[in-house]
């Protein structure tokens, strides 16, 4: 390293191409405050963005976004900032094939190009791609957005789990914003034992041992964390999946009164809004086709949905207001091996991302 580089401020040295300074634990914690990059994240249920309707502004992974549909119904996700005076585009108008900022009428196309500056025709802004545009797709009733870092602006392919791909499964999306650090939702879902205690009065989780030994089982894109010797009794296992999107899959056995379809599955994503709020997506899934699918949907909407929201509310109340950094107060034991491994995985992924960015002079 040259003397010139050594004399630069620490932040500038970190951004020097080829810098091999190791990434610190503090840097990893800071990066994880707003989720994991280079992943597809669900940001909003599709039904909340109407074709030709008012643009929707929101924050995800700490970034201000505007979502809108064009006249053909295609979804567009862009940075919520007019390139002229930086006011939110979500306060503008959807013109069907573009957004028009309400402040001075600047028009932005779906690819982020400034199409018109009515106040000054021929303005140098016209024709420039001045608004960041995000890759987006719709899966199982939700808008998914690719959040890449500086080395991964183009998205990787995401193949949704079969439970969200239609076919043999019916999936019903439940969505809510919870006041808590995003990772605590994943910790909660990788902790099957809490179901035996917190949800003991549930119509599906009142059985099963209050003592258990857990084991882990590796998969191609994650791992299972499951009770040894207990299956199809209670909340018996969780599966972490990290396959260009980060989610947890689990199943809860249903009694015959719960209708057709076997075990009741849940696919859960917790998309960070900021350090203290999380957009929570819970898909309720069952393997049903034909008339059985209709029966399941009817039973869910008329009898089961309030019960499921009651269980979710128990989780929300337990986690409400939980801020980052509680780990320093924890005393974990064997039942917590799933969330310990989850945390280790997230740290390892983030360390590699930051190391690559630093070597390229991007961090």
From TrEMBL:
<keyword id="KW-0560">Oxidoreductase</keyword>
<dbReference type="GO" id="GO:0046872">
    <property type="term" value="F:metal ion binding"/>
</dbReference>
<dbReference type="Pfam" id="PF19112">
    <property type="entry name" value="VanA_C"/>
</dbReference>
<protein>
    <submittedName>
        <fullName>Aromatic ring-hydroxylating dioxygenase subunit alpha</fullName>
    </submittedName>
</protein>
<keyword id="KW-0223">Dioxygenase</keyword>
<keyword id="KW-0408">Iron</keyword>
<dbReference type="GO" id="GO:0051537">
    <property type="term" value="F:2 iron, 2 sulfur cluster binding"/>
</dbReference>
<keyword id="KW-0411">Iron-sulfur</keyword>
<dbReference type="GO" id="GO:0051213">
    <property type="term" value="F:dioxygenase activity"/>
</dbReference>
<keyword id="KW-0001">2Fe-2S</keyword>
<dbReference type="InterPro" id="IPR017941">
    <property type="entry name" value="Rieske_2Fe-2S"/>
</dbReference>
<feature type="domain" description="Rieske">
    <location>
        <begin position="40"/>
        <end position="145"/>
    </location>
</feature>
<dbReference type="InterPro" id="IPR044043">
    <property type="entry name" value="VanA_C_cat"/>
</dbReference>
<keyword id="KW-0479">Metal-binding</keyword>
<dbReference type="Pfam" id="PF00355">
    <property type="entry name" value="Rieske"/>
</dbReference>
<dbReference type="InterPro" id="IPR050584">
    <property type="entry name" value="Cholesterol_7-desaturase"/>
</dbReference>
<dbReference type="InterPro" id="IPR036922">
    <property type="entry name" value="Rieske_2Fe-2S_sf"/>
</dbReference>
């Amino acid at each position: 390293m040259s003397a010139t580089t050594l004399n630069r401020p620490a932040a500038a040295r970190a951004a020097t191409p080829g810098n091999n300074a190791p990434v610190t634990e503090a840097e990893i914690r800071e990066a994880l405050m707003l989720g994991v990059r280079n992943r597809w994240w669900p940001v909003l249920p599709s039904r909340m963005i109407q074709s030709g309707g008012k643009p929707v502004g929101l924050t995800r992974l700490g970034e201000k976004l505007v979502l809108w549909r064009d006249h053909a119904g295609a979804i567009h996700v862009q940075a919520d900032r007019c390139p002229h005076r930086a006011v939110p585009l979500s306060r503008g108008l959807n013109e069907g094939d573009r957004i028009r900022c309400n402040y001075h009428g600047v028009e932005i196309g779906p690819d982020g190009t400034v199409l018109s500056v009515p106040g000054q025709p021929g303005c140098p802004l016209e024709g420039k791609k001045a608004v960041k545009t995000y890759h987006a797709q719709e899966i199982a009733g939700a808008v998914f957005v690719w959040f890449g870092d500086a080395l991964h602006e183009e998205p990787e392919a995401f193949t949704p789990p079969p439970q969200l791909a239609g076919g043999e499964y019916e999936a019903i999306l439940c969505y809510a914003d919870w006041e808590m650090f995003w990772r605590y939702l994943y910790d909660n879902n990788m902790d099957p034992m809490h179901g035996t205690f917190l949800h003991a009065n549930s119509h599906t989780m009142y059985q099963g041992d209050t003592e258990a030994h857990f084991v882990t089982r590796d998969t191609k894109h994650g791992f299972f964390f499951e009770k040894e010797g207990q299956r199809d009794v209670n909340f018996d296992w969780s599966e972490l999946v990290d396959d260009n999107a980060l989610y947890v899959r689990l199943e809860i056995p249903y009694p015959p009164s719960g209708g057709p379809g076997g075990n009741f599955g849940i696919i859960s994503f917790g998309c960070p809004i900021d350090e203290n709020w999380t957009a929570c997506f819970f898909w309720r899934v069952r393997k049903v086709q034909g008339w059985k699918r209709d029966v399941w949907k009817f039973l869910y909407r008329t009898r089961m949905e309030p019960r499921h929201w009651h269980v979710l509310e128990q989780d929300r109340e337990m986690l409400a207001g939980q801020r980052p950094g509680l780990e320093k107060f924890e005393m974990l034991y064997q039942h917590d091996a799933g969330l310990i491994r989850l945390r280790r995985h997230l740290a390892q992924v983030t360390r590699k991302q930051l190391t690559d960015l630093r070597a390229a002079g991007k961090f």
